[in-house]
Every structure is written in C-alpha cells, then in structure tokens.
Amino acid sequence: MFCRYKKRIEESNGDESETSSKRKLQFKGKLFKNELVLYKNIMHGNLYAHCPNLSNVIRIFTSSTFTDTKHERNRLMVDVYPKLKAFCRQLGLEFQVVDMRWGVRFETVDDHKTTELCLAEIDNCNQLSRGPTFVTFLSHKYGYRPFPREIAADEFDKIVAKLDKTAKALFNKWFKLDSNSVPLSYVLQSISSVIEGYNEDATPAERRKFGKLFWQECEIMQESLLKAVKKVLPPSQMEKYFMSETEIQEGIIKAKNPKVQCIWFYRDIVDIDNQPETDLLKRFRESANDPSAVSSGIQDRLARLKREKIPSVLPAENISRFTVHWSHNGIDPDNVPEHQAYLDSLCADFETRMKMHILESVVGAATTGGEGRIAGNPLAREVIQHARFAQSKSATFYGRQPLLNLLTQYLAKPASSPLICYGVSGCGKTSLMAKLAFAMLDRHRPLAADGTDDGSSGPGAFVLLRFLGTTQNSSSLRELLNSLINQSRRMLGVNKDGVNIQSVKTLATAVVLMLKRLASIKPVLVVLDSIDQLKPDDSAHSCFWLPQSLPENVWFVVSTLPEEHGILDSLKTIYKFDTDECRQNFVEVTQLDPSDSKAILREQLRQRDRILTDKQLRLLETCVARVALPLYARLCVDFAAKWSSFSVVDEEALAPTVREIISQLFAGIERKHGVLLVRRALGYLTVSYAGLSENELEDILALDDDVLNDTFEYWMPPVRRLPPLAINRVIFDLQDYL
Known about the structure:
Oligomer: single chain
Number of domains: 4
CATH architecture of the largest domain: 3-Layer(aba) Sandwich
Distance between the termini: 15 Å
CATH superfamily of the largest domain: P-loop containing nucleotide triphosphate hydrolases
Strand order of the largest sheet: 2-1-3-7-8
Structural class: alpha/beta
Number of helices: 32
CATH topology of the largest domain: Rossmann fold
C-alpha cells in the first residue's frame, strides 16, 4: 500500500540539507510594494517573492479546560460544526476543528507530550487557516498547569537543592539528565518506563490504576516545584512553571491579527463564588481550599488574564459573553431551561460569528489585487505551489558545493541543448534543481536606475519551474505542457489561457515558440525535476516532447532516475550522448563524499540543538558512510536526533538501506498515530487516482468502526466521527518526506 509514498519519498526528498529541526529553517520571501507587483513576480518565476497562503482550509483550535465545557463542546460538534463544514464547502473551503479531547493517543500521554502537541496544533492552525484560527471558552477555571517535561539543567540543580527528602527522591526517580540536549536538560521519563503496569497493552482500567500512581507522585512534585522556584529563580524565569495559559498566550496574545483570527466565548456563572466547595464545583473553578492554587495566585492570574491580557489585544466585538446561574448539577441543559437556552444562544452565535469571519477572509483575499488573483486562479496556484516547494528546499540546503558549481557552469554560457541530471533515488536531485533555479535568478538581478530592485519589472530572468508529480497538473504530460504555455503567456502580459490544443506534439512545438518569444525579452530557464514521475500517457517517457535544440538565451534542465522507464536511454539517444560535446550536458548526481556526509550530519544535529554521545555518533556516521545517499542520511539524522544520551542504541537502531529505513519511518508513524489509521488512510490515498481531500478521507474512514474504536482511546465523542486532526497529524508527520 505504501509503494507510492515510498517512491515519492525517494524521488522528491533525497536532500541532505532539509531538516525538521526545533527551530525549523524557513524561507523568508521578498515583500513588494503592492499585490499586483507580487502577482507579476510570482508568475514570472521570481522564487524570491513572498508566496501568500493559498490554503483552502479554515482550521480552528478550541481551547478550554475540559471539565467545565463538556456540554458546549458536544453541542458544537453535533449541531454547529456540520453546518460550518457545509458552508465552507460551498466556498471551496474545508472546515476543520482541533479539539484536544479527540484522538490523543497513548504514546503522547505516556511521554508527557500533550502540551507540546497543543502548541504544535496551534502553530498548524496559524500556518494553514485562511481565516479564524483560535477559539477560547475561558470561564472561571484557570486550568491545569502542566508539569514540565524538560527542565534546564542549571535550573533543575537549583530546584532540587531546595526540595525535602521525599520530593528530591521523586525528582531523581522521574528525571534523567540528557547531555544530548543543547543546552543540557533533565527530561521527565515516560510513565511506562517507570511504572511497569502502565503500557499500551494494558486495559483501560489497568491504565487508570497505574496512571493514578504517577499522578499522585506528580502532584507532590508539582507542589514542591512551585515552592522551590520561588526561592531560587527570578520572576522572569519562574513564570513558566506557574502558567496554565500557554494556549491563550500562543493563540491570542501572540497572534499576528487577533481581530481576524480569534474569538472568546465567555460564560459567566454570576453566582459561582457563592457556592459551597464541592467536587462538582472544582470542575468549574479552582478550589479556594487548594494550597497550591492559593500559593501560586491562580485567581489573580485568571483575573489578570480575563480583565487585562486578553482585552488588551482582542477587540470587544470578538468577545461574546453569556450570563447564567449555577444549578446543583452545574451546567445542566437537560433539566435547567436557562442552561438549554444558553447553549442554543452559544451555538447560534458561534455559527454566525464563524461564518462572518470566514466570509471576511475570503472577500478580503479577493479584493487585495495580486493575492486575490492568485487565490482564484488555478494556474497561479500551480506556479506558487512549485515556488514554495523550491523555497523550502533552498532554505535548508547544505553542502554539495562542487556538484552545484558544476551545474551552474551550464548557465554561464549559451546552451544548445538541455542539461540532463540523473541519479539514483535519494541522491539529492530535487534540491539541486531548486538551487539551480535560484542560481539563475542570482545571475540576472534586475536593477532600477537608482541601483535598487523594487520588483516592478519582475525578475531579471524568466523561470518556469516544475517538480513533476507533486501536483495533479504536473503529473501528466498534456497538463504540464499546457501549464508551461499558459505561464509563458502571463510572462508576455497575456492574462488568459490559450486555445485548447489536443495534439501533444503541437503543444511541445508551442512551448519552444513561447520560449523563443520570452528569450527576446529576458533570459529564460526551464527546470523540470523528476520527469520519471510523469504518467506514461501520451508516450511521456519517450521524451520526444523535449526540445531537440534550444532558442538563443534559453536554458533547459531536466532530472530523472537512471533506470526508470528507459528515460535516460531515450535522452542519450535524442541528445547524442556518444559525442564528447553533448556528453558534457549529462551530469550524474553521485553519492555523498565521506567528509561531506560527516559535516552534513553534524550541521543537521546543530540546527536541532542536539549532539550525540561518541558511541551514538560513530554508529550514525558508520551507517551513513555505508549507504552515502542524502535521503538516507537525512532519515538517519531524523531518528538520531530523538536519541537521549541515556538511550540504548545498537546497530539495529538504524535500518541498513533506504527502503528499510523508510519502512522504519512508517512503523514509527503507525506507533504514534495507530496502525489501523495510518495503513488505511494511506491505503485509500494510494488507490485513489486523483487523490483525496482531508475531509473526503475523513468521511471514508468514518465508516470504519475498527479505525474509530482504535482512535478514541481516552474519550468517545457524541458523534462517531474521525477527528480531522487525526488525519492531519499523520500528513503533518509525513509532509517533509512527500
């Protein structure tokens, strides 16, 4: 089932330089004076241009304490979210909700990564959503202050020195020093590694039983920690140990545009302070008799958050307040008409506000000129997808300078025929193609009379770039040629597509004619990466459609696997490989040089703030030297960066071949997200000819009871549906490899 994904991993991501580091490197595009100039630069192939978000997803993170908002969340799931999905579908959008009750798996809880997952989900919403991103239901409960998974070594030592004997023993039991972390840190051990009965095979009752042992000890450590940090740390350093508002800090306080992105639905139980202390009341408000709550000033923190922090960044019109009274069952819509009316009003207001925010984001994009042109233009979206792909490759490129220099020499002189790059899977062809496109732009920089570049004239060279197989329109020859022709027309100032030509041979001729016209204005570079990824339709693999000779001022580069579909043999015949002059235009992308590979490994670890023990580093270097392919090196580092200094690793820790280490990658994703979910989700994607949207995939998997039962380990929703974040998490963990 995974063959297509393994193949695309091998083909498109053989890049020794790409990482998923802690501080992930990102391409920062050039901003232009207005949207029309941006549109022009993108369509002309300026890869340095800032590419706008073209996501068709509206994705919101719902933040609240779980114990006091059960009815609100359930009603929204049943009555409102389906309506918003249908509404967004009419606009060509997908509506998704992140609710941290949905589909949180054993491994995340066991390894104390729930907070890390929350923050990652908020960041994903900010990156993906075209409209609103964050909704909070903050009311009277400040919420759980997560016990830290990592503590900086210098702070840990100071804290432990102030603990009593019992607490000190617990800290030494649960924390280990990780000297692979930069800087050094102590790491909270997984529950299963300390408490034997707590494991993935245990029954829910057994997990609750053994999990309770951890929480009892965690409460002692938490209370001791809060007391100790007051004694040894300055206020600026100790604040992180007292905060429960991390989600709101990231989702609202730090939001780029809270007015557009964020909404607060505030339920005010007006008489809650007059109620006697009961276990039920503790679900809605921190107990006034809780020593840790009093010592950490929870009520003051909550009041400051509600009265100062949120209102200081969130406009009043983004705050919706509902007033209710307490009942002996808390919030009880089944028996209290006032509470039922409150939920009805909440749902109606949520639906109205969300639709308004979504429409504002869509209308706003449509009226901003260049970005609006892109959002509603399939060709522009195609061009920008390939530009963003090139940007992501270029931003983290490292090494291979001799090979890159050899390729850029092709651009330094007139070209009569294309440059052919070939190499085995995972050798780094795709990244080199991206760097070559940037090198063309670097050679031809446009300058105004005052010596600056305001972008109004577009880039100094036209660049037509396609990473074949990464989009639907770059997967078939006919669509590819039409796309190149229509982008060329935009470069010539013609803002409409050409006539529909059926003959592929005629299309290929038209491409050359368009390149000739473009070359009379500026230098032109065409880059087609991985032509072996084209579908076999229209005899694409025979390469008859490539130009036999190039017009003046045009350069043309293609890459391919050496053995796939006989493509390289066809290219050698077409471009007369048997002659010395033409043979120079064939460049093999070879394996990594040993010295290069060592430098690359260390650089990738450095970017992730990680080092390895001597034994671990020797194992990593030995494995990479044995295979010497960038993709293999990258996957090995991905695994090694997760090793702690106390991790026990042996020769079997890293699979010995590219295929096997990709299987190792899939096995890890199955453990993290569930074997059934991963296998069936990727299986459905594999057999679908044109792919599936996340919502379509969710609809299909919602019919699979085995997947649903496996997904909801900790909470069963009122409607048996697969949470969209379950699919998104799988795709997110694979996106750097596809």
